[in-house]
């Protein structure tokens, strides 16, 4: 099974190196390709990512996760497209979990799971608290039938084309719910709490736990009910 790893990156010079280190080390050569999508970075993201043999860097100058993810998909050649964020760390067994899931059930078109947190810039919140937040998601999945985390997911490339690709109009919030909702119309979508990667807690640290939980909750239910995100853009946490 050919798996392409796509990593959108905007001003991630401080994170992309460790992200690629773990992706290469813990995938044991199982990725067909690793694509870093430079999303209009103004720092040394491209320079750092280009140092890695076998890693391909493509550029998308239109900022936003919808643009970056779709550009990555258009450059990828794998049967399965896997996505992580540029501050994420892939654990051992992550790639194998994707392989088993899609090989066992041809009806599965989309797999996603929760984050765990590896970095707490301000130390405002304990890891157990941030990890525990995700346990609200299984009941939502059981009720609605789909839920997604675009920074920790995998999908069949042909199914992505069938649903029209990533929505380039979505800048950040709601893109994962929109994707899961549309995949749900063409096949089986899975949410698995044991399918994790490790993400930075920087957005919680900088914007606050209560505010972020409220934003994520609203921007899950709004696309479910109205097929569009509540929050049109996102606060830019990174400056070069």
UniProtKB/TrEMBL annotation:
Main location, first listed in the record: membrane
Source organism superkingdom: Bacteria
InterPro entries: Glyco_trans_2-like, Nucleotide-diphossugar_trans
GO cellular component: plasma membrane
GO molecular function: glycosyltransferase activity
Pfam families in alphabetical order: Glycos_transf_2
Domain Glycosyltransferase 2-like: from-to ranges: 4-163
DNA damage in keyword set: no
Subcellular location: Cell membrane
Entry keywords, A to Z: Cell membrane, Glycosyltransferase, Membrane, Transferase
Protein name: Glycosyltransferase 2-like domain-containing protein
Origin species: Candidatus Kaiserbacteria bacterium RIFCSPHIGHO2_01_FULL_53_29
Phylogenetic lineage: Bacteria, Candidatus Kaiseribacteriota
């Amino acid at each position: 099974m050919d798996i392409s790893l796509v990593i959108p990156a905007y001003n991630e010079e401080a994170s992309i190196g460790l992200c690629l280190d773990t992706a290469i080390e813990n995938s044991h050569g199982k990725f067909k390709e690793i694509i870093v999508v430079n999303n209009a970075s103004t720092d040394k993201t491209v320079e750092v990512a280009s140092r890695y043999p076998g890693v391909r860097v493509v550029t998308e100058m239109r900022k936003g996760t919808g643009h970056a993810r779709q550009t990555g998909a258009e450059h990828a050649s794998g049967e399965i497209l896997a996505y992580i964020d540029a501050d994420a760390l892939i654990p051992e067994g992550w790639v194998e979990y994707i392989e088993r899931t899609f090989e066992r059930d041809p009806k599965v078109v989309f797999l996603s799971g929760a984050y765990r947190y590896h970095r707490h810039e301000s130390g405002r919140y304990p890891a157990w608290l941030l990890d525990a937040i995700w346990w609200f998601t299984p009941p939502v999945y059981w009720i609605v039938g789909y839920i997604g985390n675009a920074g920790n997911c995998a999908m069949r490339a042909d199914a992505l084309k069938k649903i029209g690709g990533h929505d380039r109009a979505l800048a950040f919030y709601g893109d994962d719910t929109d994707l899961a909702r549309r995949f749900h119309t063409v096949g089986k979508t899975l949410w698995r709490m044991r399918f994790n990667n490790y993400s930075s807690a920087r957005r919680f640290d900088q914007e606050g736990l209560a505010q972020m939980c409220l934003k994520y909750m609203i921007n899950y239910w709004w696309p479910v009910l109205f097929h569009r995100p509540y929050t049109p853009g996102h606060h830019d946490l990174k400056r070069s």
